Each structure stands twice: as structure tokens, then as C-alpha cells.
Amino acid sequence: MPLTVSIVIVSRHRPGALRRCLIAISQLDYDPFEVVIVADPASCTALRNVPQAAYAKLVAYDEANISAARNLGINAAAGEIVAFIDDDSVPEPTWLKYLISPFAHADTAAAGGFVRGRNGISWQYRARSVDQAGKTAPIELDKGQATILVPTENQAIKTEGTNMAVRRSVLEELGGFDPRFRFYLDETDLNLRLAARGFCTAIVPLAEVHHGFAASTRRRGDRVPRNLFEIGASWAVFLGKHCGQDLRDVAWKRVQAEERVRALTHMVAGGLEPRDVHRLMQGLQDGYAQGEIRQAEAVRIVPVPVDSFQPSPPKHDFRTVVLPGRAWFRSRMRRMAKTEAAAGNVVTLILLSPTAFFHRIVFTTDGYWEQRGGLFGKSVRTQKLISFWSFRRRIQAESGRMGIARGLR
Length: 409
Fold this sequence. Notes:
Layout: E1 5-11, H1 15-25, E2 33-39, H2 41-46, E3 57-60, H3 66-76, E4 81-86, E5 89-91, H4 95-100, E6 108-116, E7 123-125, E8 128-131, E9 136-138, E10 147-149, E11 155-158, E12 164-167, H5 168-174, H6 186-196, E13 200-211, H7 229-242, H8 245-268, H9 274-291, E14 320-326, H10 330-342, E15 346-353, E16 360-363, E17 369-374, H11 391-406
Parallel strand pairs: 1-2, 1-4, 2-3, 6-13, 14-15, 15-17
Antiparallel strand pairs: 4-12, 5-13, 6-7, 6-12, 8-9, 8-11, 10-13, 16-17
Helix pairs in contact: 7-8, 7-9, 8-9
């Protein structure tokens, strides 16, 4: 019998992003799962008119602390496995099916999938390890199947907070997330604690999540860091917990150098002024000083939640549909896609123009995937700048590229 899964979503003041995430989750090809939403009261109220939220457990929480919010979600979760996704992300329809499959092995305590970035095609995060100084390194593995990895003395298996799952019993044993990490390094700290206990983590390349949808509609300049205080505080807590004193200063100098390079890069691009760089670096140092004196909090994950498992309706009798079209017919094609999605189908609309424009993929608020770009342009960014295709061959190639994750094959 399939394992029961609780999907925990933390959201704060982003009801539009949360709604999009919920629509995508309602299309998951997995049964049984429940949804636990930890969000500010206004967002919880706004969800009353969202059909996909009718079966969800709502937990009101309005503090800027993702670790504390996730702990509330875990306490409300009644599934054997707890999966985590951010409100500005959307999963592929097969996400949960692949992410949960390694838990059939009793040795698997946690699992993490791959994450695509804002253009919906390029990878943002893939398989990585992380050491006690917080430094990551890529892991080479088979991209077509899950790999269960055993941590070493100095290397944990890195998972991403927007695409990961952990046995609920393990989260109870470890005490959930450390609230001192308010939004940064929270899952990395958990990875190190999993490794310290010798727990195995599976990396599942086919479990795909698209991240950054809330940010994709903003101006490019909005990606510029505005404050590094909490990042500095989180580094102080992390290095204090996991990094020996002899290596801590070296690690902190590395972090400062990396953040300075990032700030200078934004300054050269016009997103920051020279005085902003100084302000950001001072905030980073002030945060580190504050993080050094943050006191650990006692966290208790309850063995049994108050509310029983509340499954979302299973998805039966749906079709996976690809609608190819020319860009000049986009209005008509979008109406067709919306109609198919409203009927409960998983829909991908591919709109091609006679150009070499790069491709982008978004999950729309109407509940369908839309890929648009030039007939001769790049989708995967390692392709040639211009490639000559017929319309039919290009549609076949793009359908094949997304086929497994989208449930086409």
C-alpha cells in the first residue's frame, strides 16, 4: 500500500503564489496525500474561495520564521512522510510519485529532488553534498533513477527546502527544524543532523519542482539583496553548531568574500550603488554577531497530530495533453488550454514563433503549463544559438524532453 504523505507549504503574504502552488499540487499523480498550509491569517482567509484548499489543513502563523512555521506544519501532518515545497514553487505532476518511491527502502530517512529555475528549463539545484563549513560540492549520479546515499563523516547529502521529504518519525526524533534559522540554512542544518545520525538520503532527479514563480514577474532589479542581516545570523548559528573552532574563522571569511563578490556583481550590473555594498556587508557582520548569541529553543514534534489524515481527492480519469500552436494563435490556444485544465487534465501548451527567441516555461494561474519561444531558439541553454527545425519536429523534441516529468511517458 502506498505511503501516506503530508505536503507542508509555508506562505507569508503571497496569496497569489500560494494559490498557483495549490493548483499544481491538485494535479499530482499520487494517492494518498494531504496538504498542510502554514500561512498568515489573511492568506488563510483568502483561500476560502480556492477550491483546491477545501481539503487542506490550515495553520495560521504570521512570523518571518520558516523553520518555526515548518515545525507547526509537521505537528499538523498525519502522513508517514512529510514533503516540503515553497509557495513560490510548483511541482511537476509526477513529483510526489518519484520523490516518495525511495522510502520503500527502510533505510531511507529523507529524499530530495531536482529544482528548475525561473525560466522553467535550466537547473537551479541538482545533486550536491555539503560539509560542516556549509560548502557544497556536486555529486555525479544516474539522472534516470533515485540513488540512496550514505553520508560520510564530513559530508552530508544536501536537499533543497522546496523539494524534499523526510519520514515523520525521523523529524520527531531530530526535533524538526531549528528556529534560529529564520529563512536561510534551515534545511542544510537538518541535512547535517541527519548525517550525524547516519541516516541515508535519496537523491531523486525525476522528482522535479519549478522554483521562483513569485519572483518571475518582478523586475530583474528586485533580485538584488536588500539586507544580509539574517544570512549573517544564520551563518553564525550554523558554524557554531557544525564547524570546529579551528575552521570556523576560515569558513566565515569565505562567506564574507562570496557575499561581497555577489554584491559587487549587482553593483556592476547597476542594481546597487557603492554605498549599498558597504551597507550590505555591515548588515552581514551585524547579523553574524547577533547570531552568535541566539539561544537554542526547545522544539517538540508531537508523536501523533491532533487531526487525523485528511486526504486530497485522488486524481482519476485524467489525460495528459500537449497543445501545439503558432504564437499568433495564442489567444485561441490559451482558451483551449484553460478548458482542458478545467476538465481536470494535465495540459502543456507550446507556442512557437518564427524566431530564435529563448524558451520559457510557466505554470499559469489557469492551471496549465505554457512553453513559449522561437521555433529556432534554445530551450535547453546548452543548445546552439540557432537551430533549424520543422514545426512538427520541434514539438516532438520538446514533448520528449519534458515527457517523464509531465507524465507523457
